[in-house]
């Protein structure tokens, strides 16, 4: 789920799955993907890269059968935000 709002609103969030780009998500958009159970690395890098963050923010996630996993994607004063959500 991509944040809405002004901060970073003109940037796309490029989403990676196991180091491979899979989608660009703009402000207010949601990306849904269905994965087999297992451990994956999700990453995000801003596009265009205006602030010089060359290394994607990454998290390792364990996907379990029948379960949903939500991630918050956005930007803050400190840089890209890429965090698991509890709902």
Give a verbal description of the structure:
With 87 residues, the chain is mainly β. The chain has one domain (12-84). The chain has strands at residues 12-17, 20-25, 38-47, 57-63, 71-76, 79-84. The chain has a four-stranded antiparallel β-sheet with strand order 2-1-3-4, with no helix packed on it. Strands 5-6 form a two-stranded antiparallel sheet. The chain is globular, with a radius of gyration of 13 Å. The relative contact order is 0.28. The mean pLDDT is 80.
Share of β-strand residues: over 45%
DSSP strand count:
6
Q: Level of helix content?
A: under 10%
Integer-rounded radius of gyration:
13 Å
Which short descriptors sum up this protein?
single chain, 0% helix, 87 residues, mainly beta, two-stranded antiparallel ribbon
